[in-house]
Amino acid sequence: xxxxxxxxxxxxxxxxxxxxxxxxxxxxxxxxxxxxxxxxxxxxxxxxxxxxxxxxxxxxxxxxxxxxxxxxxxxxxxxxxxxxxxxxxxxxxxxxxxxxxxxxxxxxxxxxxxxxxxxxxxxxxxxxxxxxxxxxxxxxxxxxxxxxxxxxxxxxxxxxxxxxxxxxxxxxxxxxxxxxxxxxxxxxxxxxxxxxxxxxxxxxxxxxxxxxxxxxxxxxxxxxxxxxxxxxxxxxxxxxxxxxxxxxxxxxxxxxxxxxxxxxxxxxxxxxxxxxxxxxxxxxxxxxxxxxxxxxxxxxxxxxxxxxxxxxxxxxxxxxxxxxxxxxxxxxxxxxxxxxxxxxxxxxxxxxxxxxxxxxxxxxxxxxxxxxxxxxxxxxxxxxxxxxxxxxxxxxxxxxxxxxxxxxxxxxxxxxxxxxxxxxxxxxxxxxxxxxxxxxxxxxxxxxxxxxxxxxxxxxxxxxxxxxxxxxxxxxxxxxxxxxxxxxxxxxxxxxxxxxxxxxxxxxxxx
Amino acid sequence: xxxxxxxxxxxxxxxxxxxxxxxxxxxxxxxxxxxxxxxxxxxxxxxxxxxxxxxxxxxxxxxxxxxxxxxxxxxxxxxxxxxxxxxxxxxxxxxxxxxxxxxxxxxxxxxxxxxxxxxxxxxxxxxxxxxxxxxxxxxxxxxxxxxxxxxxxxxxxxxxxxxxxxxxxxxxxxxxxxxxxxxxxxxxxxxxxxxxxxxxxxxxxxxxxxxxxxxxxxxxxxxxxxxxxxxxxxxxxxxxxxxxxxxxxxxxxxxxxxxxxxxxxxxxxxxxxxxxxxxxxxxxxxxxxxxxxxxxxxxxxxxxxxxxxxxxxxxxxxxxxxxxxxxxxxxxxxxxxxxxxxxxxxxxxxxxxxxxxxxxxxxxxxxxxxxxxxxxxxxxxxxxxxxxxxxxxxxxxxxxxxxxxxxxxxxxxxxxxxxxxxxxxxxxxxxxxxxxxxxxxxxxxxxxxxxxxxxxxxxxxxxxxxxxxxxxxxxxxxxxxxxxxxxxxxxxxxxxxxxxxxxxxxxxxxx
Lengths: 511, 511
Known about the structure:
Strand order of the largest sheet of chain A: 3-4-2-13
Number of helices of chain A: 19
CATH architecture of one domain in chain A: Alpha-Beta Barrel
Distance between the termini of chain A: 47 Å
Largest sheet of chain A: 4 strands, mixed
Structural class of chain A: alpha/beta
CATH superfamily of one domain in chain A: Trimethylamine methyltransferase-like
Oligomer: homodimer
Radius of gyration of chain A: 23 Å
Number of strands of chain A: 22
Helix content of chain A: 40-55%
CATH topology of one domain in chain A: TIM Barrel
């Protein structure tokens, strides 16, 4: 088996995979050394699971516009009534636990950056889908391909972003029908981290797989996960034809999807946290099980996204409820035993002010407490997901590096307990020059790239800059220092040919 | 016994305790419904405890300038060598676990606001000690008595601040020698929540006890905890004469102190988290045990404060390390079995920007995960503790209300799981008008007093205000709406007489 992999690796490097970088600081993903937070007891968890089973049996899920899927589900023992599909107690859980891998590797074109998704691992990826961008340098406006490419470069430069993501902002200057091609090419060209495929239609998913085959080699893609893509449930309780088409293509190609309910409490689901958990569990199990019926053993992630709502304005809001729901969902996922995606650095703020980081810092902390394995929206998310902020992108990335350190926990051994240092220094003296400090001070503490801990006088002398202004300087410095990862010219050319050809077949539709 | 308490209560209300307010929304403190986060395993915890015991035995603690204390410790079995005191393994733990109460009530002059400290309870109190204040309305400057009184009023108006605290800012326009008198009177006059006594000298501690006796009645104070005060260890490993003097007075009066090591990693302690825990445990056990030798059973809190340091500038910094240390210290405290004080909404920022709330939100989240029972610095802390921000005070208080909700956990029962609502609404429809939502929408979600979740367009239309500006408007609105709690004129007069008399005896010293 190792021989096979080794041959594949060589084949792959002939085509598009970059050589491993000698980057000692690179951590391709985080493996947690601290436990998750268990906020529900076993009785509570069992009740959520029972009520999810009742929901699946007594109400069911609509699988719309796809007779093939309805047949697959009927064959697996589900009760199909028109497009409504009902599942007996335990059926979906049994399918998932029989077939779905507990963890898997998504390959990056730079093998040193491949990510392991599942178990105690966490992978941080940029925000996904905002049509707008903003920065201190320009007014909030629709995103462009150039913006997307800048954000891909910033993600590439950020050690704590393990994954290049997908639509970090919508490149709205490109026709909708062709965006996925330029988006995929930009991730490949400007980064060597793993990336996401398109998921808004079967055709775009098929393009994503073909592009991966050019990059990684067809053989390699046939036998390895090279794409992780986002299939959203149309909550409540609907999977529609375009999402099902993408799901089928990825599952058959052995490429990962994350099946994510999108629950706005009070709108696309009930107001209560317990009900959001019930619904989220039922919806994600329906999609995850389907992938395993289509291709048993294909890599897959469950997903969960819930938000509170401002009952006066109808706007999504960031309060305690989504944090609590997220943490509890992690417990449900550990009982189910599949990798799962959730969380992020969300904020409803319109500028990078105190609110923005109050909301984002709290939610990303909940994300690591929940043990989410794949975290889209870990950097840059603004306005409840409508906008990507360049400054927040690097500020979130800095905060993620702090979360990484938190996940590393505390080393306890005799040397770290420092009794010899206490003996050397004694009461009332300082530790600045002692041996224990001298041998550690350079790496003793996490260093933020944004936070300013100077005295008031030093800070004022340096221009009284706020964090947003410092973040603005930082992302421009990162862009200045950006050097693109090498890409085999033959692969680059082959990608160009495929994309040009596909573009010539597609209409210039902006709708 | 209940008769005795009842008589005392009546006596008290004759003097200074306000009648209970009919305030249904008042939660006098939080009782957690979610577990703490245990990040160290039993082996790690046992090693920290063993190394703390070795530190106490092989290095020891200096108790400086107080021969009485040295004699008390020697009589209890410690080895006294000059001012250096060494303790055999387990001695301090045994004294603490034999005598110190696991929880106690600190009484407020409004009985409805008395707080229970210890166990699963958390009490949030304002920041303590900053010489500076700042606001959008004025340049950063030294604090005044007027500033302090404004902050006391804001704390009184904030439901999520359960305690009035102490020196929310230093009233630097009052001579140092007299500040404690005006500070205590201001807490009594402008709030009816519990408050802290002075602790910078024995004389000031004695004044605090006398003032409490006037307010609550002497009998009541003799038999109940009416003050909680802060006794800092002069880390590393020193308790000095002024702190010992205050500790003795409070312990003998049956009033609570919190014995808090102040560990700046790399300066007043080693750089490693494990060593900070060893030192913190040893130092706080030394002080806590002393209170129990002086007055067995007197209420007491352990304490812990550690901060990272910027090794280039020497400035305290807020990184992952103090967060990890705080959470682990909570585990040590649950094993020791005493109430403890730690955490807060710290930030090193100089303005209320994104950094300020990134740091503060993360640390207060760690604080609730740690299970700290008494949280000084829960609101207003700025510049690493040097400054109190009026805007951050109300923004932190808003964030505390979110933390309170988080501590409440998730209710799971059939009704909350909402199967009937799922049946009523069905796939693809919304929950805005269904019965389950209609019966809950008014209280379904936590509502922030600061966060803005409007659309970009609504927000822009309303003036594009940032969170800091909204916080500025909020604290001024709160001040406008402030109504002082009633104070018995006879008590007010008695307090005035005591304070005037003491002031006439004290020099006008500003040093």
